[in-house]
Write a structure and sequence with these properties.
This protein has 322 residues and is an alpha/beta fold. 27% of the residues lie in helices and 35% in strands. A hairpin with a 6-residue loop joins strand 1 and strand 2.
């Protein structure tokens, strides 16, 4: 009786395919990096891989590599505030043998929508004062006196544009908009969907104050290009922040230009980014958000001296509106 084919690696994988070829294909696909990052997050975060969201342009269902969530508030606390802070990471992983090039901005943009808070009834706090009949609309970070926090202002170099190197014959060229389309655009759409998904009902009294950070983790050389006096210099960088401005027709007048920040972090720097920057930033927001939970939940507050343009240190003067 003639036996069937033996289960050799060649037969199991298919004719003409060897294990090394499959490993190389897997390595280039990006899945190994996704698995590495997801595994590293499990100690401190609740992790979901292949998190799905709806594309706001096409209406199609898309997926992001990782959503990770971590409460920064102790739910065992007997005094339950109206606002419960949570740090959320929306992560897209990219691998490449060729570098990404980031063009560092010559200016320091103001990121009014960074981080892109979600889960509250209002994105701004309407503040009344005692020396002016006007009311003042402040961002959440502005009201908490955290707009100049190092994580927001100067922890990472800002850049408006970036590109990926590609091979054209024996030459290296930049890929144009491909890197933006495949990396930044999905993260921005995921941010918008996350905010929409976490929108509370109009009858809500308690709110989850989500602090979502959109992050691209890169396993490839990251090169910062700086131009000074018409001279371009190149250097490796572990972290940049992509800044995107967008016009919004239907928003209130103070929100018609929105500014997004997308953090691009090298794989080797990701743990440092989390432990030394992102998590400490969320931990600084948390006690202030709980202290001012009434103002954040109602979107209204009072602070003295606003009419004299004393807009620094609002948090120390902020209290619930009467």
């Amino acid at each position: 009786m003639q036996g069937g084919p033996t289960n050799t690696p060649e037969n199991a994988l298919g004719a003409g395919i060897n294990e090394q070829q499959v490993l190389e294909a897997v390595r280039k696909s990006g899945y190994p990096l996704q698995t590495i990052i997801a595994s590293s997050l499990q100690t401190d975060f609740r992790v979901q891989e292949e998190w799905s969201f709806v594309d706001n342009d096409s209406g199609a269902l898309r997926t992001l590599d990782i959503w990770a969530s971590r409460r920064t508030f102790d739910l065992r606390n007997e005094d339950q505030p109206f606002v419960r802070p949570t740090l959320d990471l929306l992560i897209e992983c990219k691998q490449s043998d060729l570098p990404y090039v980031f063009f560092v901005s010559a200016t320091q943009p103001q990121l009014r929508e960074f981080p892109y808070f979600a889960g509250l009834a209002q994105d701004r706090i309407e503040i009344k004062t005692d020396d002016d009949r006007s009311t003042y609309m402040e961002t959440i970070l502005g009201a908490l006196s955290l707009s100049d926090h190092p994580f927001v202002r100067d922890a990472a170099e800002p850049c408006m544009t970036f590109s990926k190197c590609v091979r054209k014959g024996d030459k290296i060229e930049l890929s144009g908009t491909e890197a933006f389309q495949n990396t930044v655009l999905p993260l921005m759409k995921a941010l918008r969907y996350f905010k929409k998904q976490e929108q509370p009902p109009t009858t809500a009294r308690y709110f989850d104050c989500h602090i979502p950070l959109a992050i691209a983790v890169i396993d490839a050389p990251m090169i910062a290009a700086r131009i000074q006096n018409n001279v371009t210099s190149l250097s490796l960088t572990p972290w940049v922040r992509i800044v995107r401005y967008e016009a919004v027709d239907s928003a209130p007048f103070y929100d018609r230009i929105q500014t997004f920040g997308i953090d691009v972090v090298h794989k080797s720097f990701f743990d440092n980014y989390l432990q030394q920057h992102a998590i400490p930033f969320a931990q600084q927001i948390t006690p202030l958000a709980i202290k001012h939970h009434v103002e954040l939940s109602t979107g209204k507050g009072f602070a003295s001296g606003m009419g004299a343009c004393d807009w620094r240190g609002i948090e120390s003067r902020l209290r619930p509106a009467e």
